[in-house]
Amino acid sequence: MKMMMKMLVLVLVLSGVLSVSADSQHEDLAITGCSDSDGEAMYALDGEEKWYADFIKQRGVEPQPDFIDHGSYPDPGAYQQAVANQQICRGNLKNSRKFNKDMPLEKDPPSSLVIYPRDDVELGEKNHLLCHVTGFYPAPVKVYWTKNGENVTEGTSINVPFPNKDGSFNQISRLEFIPQLGDMYSCTVKHLALKQPLTRIWDVEVKQPSIGPAVFCGLGLTVGLLGVAAGTFFLIKGNECS
């Protein structure tokens, strides 16, 4: 019943297109979503977000790095079409509220929150911290970053909510940073179903090469050489006495 309620709201508020090619086995997903104060338009290929509409900055965004082939999507009118679809979506949302006015809103808190660096940490080298939150419903979540206890907004970004197979959502927030030893970062998530925000902490650590085996081998070699030297000394002394 829980899953059916989620899917009912999802179908009415979000319109998605899913296609699978038998020849190349690729999966496309297009989502249009809206609320009274927010909207979403996103295109994904094989589970990777390729394009989304930023209705605040009024432009389309391709979140993939520059070195990745972005292909021919989207077409030049994709953002304008996304804006037009928002009007249709809000009309559908208004009708769905009338139809489901007595149905309580299903709310699920995030089931998982993790924070980790995108690349191996090297002091002084630019990197990204990722805060991945999943299992929540409805979307979206709000994510806040801190560095050494101070709020950070510069260099932060967040993708649009991405649907999971069970009807819940996941989102990833990113923080661009330069690792310095001793710095501590935190990612805090707020959601309608949470009584208290969730926070995860990450501090800068650099892996040091292990010296245990080298010391052990060096010590063994030293003891071996001492044994040979001692044996040679007693052998010479023995010959002198005979």
TrEMBL record:
<protein>
    <submittedName>
        <fullName>MHC class II alpha</fullName>
    </submittedName>
</protein>
<comment type="similarity">
    <text>Belongs to the MHC class II family.</text>
</comment>
<feature type="domain" description="Ig-like">
    <location>
        <begin position="110"/>
        <end position="199"/>
    </location>
</feature>
<dbReference type="InterPro" id="IPR007110">
    <property type="entry name" value="Ig-like_dom"/>
</dbReference>
<keyword id="KW-0391">Immunity</keyword>
<keyword id="KW-1064">Adaptive immunity</keyword>
<keyword id="KW-0491">MHC II</keyword>
<keyword id="KW-0812">Transmembrane</keyword>
<dbReference type="InterPro" id="IPR013783">
    <property type="entry name" value="Ig-like_fold"/>
</dbReference>
<dbReference type="InterPro" id="IPR050160">
    <property type="entry name" value="MHC/Immunoglobulin"/>
</dbReference>
<dbReference type="InterPro" id="IPR003597">
    <property type="entry name" value="Ig_C1-set"/>
</dbReference>
<dbReference type="InterPro" id="IPR014745">
    <property type="entry name" value="MHC_II_a/b_N"/>
</dbReference>
<dbReference type="InterPro" id="IPR036179">
    <property type="entry name" value="Ig-like_dom_sf"/>
</dbReference>
<dbReference type="InterPro" id="IPR001003">
    <property type="entry name" value="MHC_II_a_N"/>
</dbReference>
<keyword id="KW-0325">Glycoprotein</keyword>
<feature type="transmembrane region" description="Helical">
    <location>
        <begin position="211"/>
        <end position="236"/>
    </location>
</feature>
<feature type="signal peptide">
    <location>
        <begin position="1"/>
        <end position="22"/>
    </location>
</feature>
<keyword id="KW-0732">Signal</keyword>
<dbReference type="Pfam" id="PF00993">
    <property type="entry name" value="MHC_II_alpha"/>
</dbReference>
<keyword id="KW-1015">Disulfide bond</keyword>
<dbReference type="Pfam" id="PF07654">
    <property type="entry name" value="C1-set"/>
</dbReference>
<keyword id="KW-0393">Immunoglobulin domain</keyword>
<dbReference type="InterPro" id="IPR011162">
    <property type="entry name" value="MHC_I/II-like_Ag-recog"/>
</dbReference>
<dbReference type="InterPro" id="IPR003006">
    <property type="entry name" value="Ig/MHC_CS"/>
</dbReference>
<keyword id="KW-1133">Transmembrane helix</keyword>
<keyword id="KW-0472">Membrane</keyword>
<dbReference type="GO" id="GO:0002504">
    <property type="term" value="P:antigen processing and presentation of peptide or polysaccharide antigen via MHC class II"/>
</dbReference>
<dbReference type="GO" id="GO:0042613">
    <property type="term" value="C:MHC class II protein complex"/>
</dbReference>
<dbReference type="GO" id="GO:0002250">
    <property type="term" value="P:adaptive immune response"/>
</dbReference>
